[in-house]
Amino acid sequence: MGGTPVLRGTRITVYAVRGRLDGGDGVEDILADYPNLAREVVETVALYARTHPFVGRPGGRAWAKAT
């Protein structure tokens, strides 16, 4: 996943879980979609994603002058 933190044994990124929680889904909704996850894992992932924000690549063209 290009260095993005994932839940161990899955390809679910911590930021995907945070996005669902920020989008209005609850922990119960995530657990319904991924029954192999424990509630503690989802809550821990949400805490990790809040304390370690996604940085990513800078946007735009650095060489273009702002007008």
From TrEMBL:
Source taxonomy: Bacteria, Pseudomonadati, Pseudomonadota, Alphaproteobacteria, Acetobacterales
Residues in the signal sequence: none
Highest taxon, organism lineage: Bacteria
Protein known as: DUF433 domain-containing protein
InterPro entries to which the protein is assigned, alphabetical: DUF433, Homeodomain-like_sf, WH-like_DNA-bd_sf
